[in-house]
């Protein structure tokens, strides 16, 4: 029985690979819909980019809604320096023709959770948590109906990637993250500690390119573009493929390992704004509100992505 998910996303090349992984794994996942949020690039582009990716995958049937165009309180911070001005630089694809669903992404999330059986829908945020927080505030009853939130965000021993202390998704909307991590919903967190072990490499990108389809050509182009920033910054062999870790965990959780921890979000100090304070060693009595992943079988992870892309 496929697991039912809503993907909330700010594409972004790594978001694109995550969406392709989900759409290419129909035995494991039912994608109920995809909601766009402002993050890597503004909402007008993320809501366009989701549809570009769906059309590339031959899935014009997917419900795509636009959500929040800014964080709850702070001004929007974007990441064109990483993802390019379109957010999907690296592949030249046509403008989408499939329409946006007229519903706001927050309303779509609430409507889905209130109509589907309780405990059957998993939320998969891949960007700032604005839409998820807004849904929880607008309709608190959804908290008990969400099966799990599996998100990409935060960092522990890896620190931050947009500031020394904060990872981008949490930094952009720390107040939304505070709402989500305080909602009492089961959370699984793909932090930088695990995503920085899921590095693209020449051979891994080549194995995707060797598939030789329109989808794999676009995916390889995105990976080539996306990794250059992190290779230059970290001097690593490749770039961390953050968001597909969320989807891969749903399909093959045995590829990952971690532990339950308390996670709190810094929303006061500008120096550490958006920092995820993760009690990895259990030195506090604070509730263990998240399953924090720290390690991944990278070869198995990339094999899963290549298999999914070859099915599209
Ligand atoms: O820090 C990495 C995260 O920020 C990823 O989700 C990437 O797509 C950006 O949204
Ligand atoms: Ca993202």
In short:
This protein is of the alpha/beta class and 312 residues long. The chain is built from twelve helices and ten strands. The strands form two sheets. It has an eight-stranded mixed beta sheet with strand order 3-2-1-4-5-6-10-7, with helices on both faces.
Largest sheet geometry: 8 strands, mixed
- Strand portion: 15-25%
| Class computed from helices, strands and strand pairing | alpha/beta
Mean pLDDT: 97
Bound molecules: alpha-D-ribofuranose, calcium ion
Architecture (CATH level 2) name: Alpha-Beta Complex
Listing every helix as H and every strand as E from the N terminus to the C terminus, the arrangement reads EHEHEHHEHEHHEHHHHEEEEH
Number of DSSP E strands? 10
Q: What Rg, in angstroms, do the CA atoms define?
A: 18 Å
Annotated CATH topology: Inosine-uridine Nucleoside N-ribohydrolase, Chain A
CATH class: Alpha Beta
Strand numbers in spatial order across the main sheet? 3-2-1-4-5-6-10-7
Question: How would you describe the overall organization of this protein?
Answer:
This protein has helices at residues 13-23, 43-56, 80-83, 105-115, 130-138, 168-172, 174-181, 192-195, 202-209, 214-234, 244-251, 298-311, and strands spanning 3-9, 29-36, 64-66, 121-125, 146-152, 187-190, 256-261, 263-265, 276-278, 290-296. With 312 residues, the chain is α/β, with parallel strands linked by helices. The protein has one domain (3-311): Inosine-uridine Nucleoside N-ribohydrolase, Chain A, CATH 3.90.245.10. The chain starts with a strand and ends with a helix. The model has no long low-confidence stretch (mean pLDDT 97).
